[in-house]
Amino acid sequence: MNFNWFKLASPPAFYTLAGRLIPILWGLTIILLVTGLYWGFFETVSQLGGNNPQKEYYRIIFIHVPSAWMSMWLYFVMVVWAAIGLIFNTRLSFMMANAIAPTGAIFTFLALWTGAFWGRPSWGTYWDWDPRLTSELVLFFMYIGYMALHSAIDDVRRADRASALLAIVGLVMVPVIFWSINCPDPNQCAALHQRSNLTKIDSDILFAMLTMTFAFWAYSFAATFIRLRTIILHRDADSVWVRELFTNGGR
Questions:
Q1: What whole-number distance in Å separates Cα of residue 232 and Cα of residue 210?
Q2: What is the pLDDT of residues 224-237, one digit of tens each?
Q3: What pTM value is reported for the model?
Q4: Which domains does the chain have, with CATH numbers?
Q5: What sign has the CA pseudo-torsion 31, 34, 38, 44?
Q6: Is the pLDDT confidence value at 1 over 90?
Q7: How far apart are CA 200 and CA 184, in angstroms?
Q8: Which of 16-20, 84-88, 189-193 has the lowest average pLDDT?
Q9: How many Å separate Cα 92 from the centre of its chain?
């Protein structure tokens, strides 16, 4: 039996699919989140690297690092959907980009916030204007700018296209952040922030970090689909299928 994937480009069809996936994604989020937090707090070494002077506050990485990863990944996904919307003029693509933005902004803020708590005991300051912190802050402003621009334009079609163009322009920040964290020459980066090197991380720490990443990933899908269903209902409020939907109980 052949499945028509193009059918999912229809808001009514994707609304139904998202409704079925949301409970599964919430279940995955809870399982992975509990596992990741338990492993991170009770099954990892009590001191990073054994004799490293950094004590228990290093466990912030189990929230900070996955949040930073998700902030970049979600922005990239948002731009992909926005570009698809511009190229193929598909309403659902613009809706998807619009639904992703708040979750991406939340993870970017969480990365900045937890980074500040890491910075105080590590560097003696909550904030430093080095490339890695500054580029993440700019990414947060890009999310806010995207949402603000979309809300400022009354015409939905114009708002979709204008905010999509802004998002695409802001995509340059993702490789900038990645480069600043993985800079091959530390002398060129001049940053307080530690370099990213997963190969030297303890296996238990890496397991907890990756589990938390997948938990945030599942949460991102669940939150995005919930928001997407709300956007679909709002934009198609006058359509026949929405009226029939609420007549049948709103599922």
A1: 33
A2: 999 999 999 999 88
A3: 0.86
A4: 25-220 (1.20.120)
A5: positive
A6: no
A7: 16
A8: 189-193
A9: 19
